[in-house]
């Protein structure tokens, strides 16, 4: 079978789904690889490097007409129309948030695998694009915050006086939150963090940050390894804590998400109005509505009281080389799973819970939603 790797058509997308170092691994699995010219340009991977890696080149039409298409973003209508019935699309399709997308791929007669539907179980870690992108994005969120914040992160004692360390508050200590905690701490900030899952307290503390607690909270996670929603009582206790933490913080990084739902709004306009002038919020949940009442996706908002709220939804893409490399490696791991004979033939084995979970349509039939998966 032939794998096609398009140049992403979204002008804001910098990443590419295969790199010169993942192409040979795809070839080793028995596939031919055809790359659209310029596909890796925005991530600093020139065509010459793909050619050396063994890829061939094709037009956008040829790439989208491949047996298997790997892309970072879902296809536009024009791109989808180029796919042949029976072909397989691997991309970020968001079926949990928008189940109606399944019909789109069913109508095209294709098999559609959604990378954002990989269950968070140990066996699937190596192909979990959401985790690898969240890790990079958490790093980048701190860099964005540092740039917007007019101060040093680290405290200093100088002949001209003392500079206190920046106070950073991180909301949600999943993959992105833990990455942000680590980086902010290593830059010298004093970091405090909250999560509805108390079991992450140990991880937060082991990174040298302070775990903020708000009394009894639900310790359960849903069967796919993601957090569940808070009860009304827990939310009220948490709201008081958010008001206090945000008032004292120089930088707030929010990462709270409940999978498949709009992001919970945790910081109200009132809380933000009480924050210090010059303080910065990086809201990583901007693409699903944001964790603050004032976040606007892909915008930088400066409030009347001088608080900057950054809502970039492309944080991983702001480090395009490494993001593409990890994305591409996750895809190689997925292809290893669905190419058991290493013969270039993709097989969707529904007895495999990872494959089953991420399949939205199979040969034109809607298979979404999948049965729940047990966390391991
Ligand atoms: P994750 O599921 O690993 O972590 C989310 C954490 O939030 C969990 O630990 C969960 O317990 C916690 N949480 C849920 N509800 C909460 C609440 N009400 N209060 C406090 N904590 C709560 O997710 P992740 O992979 O770390 O991603 C985090 C967010 O970052 C997601 O919204 C994701 O879409 C986003 N993200 C953004 C970018 C970007 O460019 N902006 C890139 C990658 C990921």
Automatic annotation (TrEMBL):
Its EC number is 7.1.1.1. This is proton-translocating NAD(P)(+) transhydrogenase. Keywords: Cell inner membrane, Cell membrane, Membrane, NAD, NADP, Nucleotide-binding, Oxidoreductase, Translocase, Transmembrane, Transmembrane helix. It catalyses: NAD(+) + NADPH + H(+)(in) = NADH + NADP(+) + H(+)(out). The keyword Transferase does not apply. The lineage of its organism: Bacteria, Bacillati, Actinomycetota, Actinomycetes, Propionibacteriales. It is found in: Cell inner membrane. Residues 146-311 form the Alanine dehydrogenase/pyridine nucleotide transhydrogenase NAD(H)-binding domain. Residues 4-137 form the Alanine dehydrogenase/pyridine nucleotide transhydrogenase N-terminal domain.
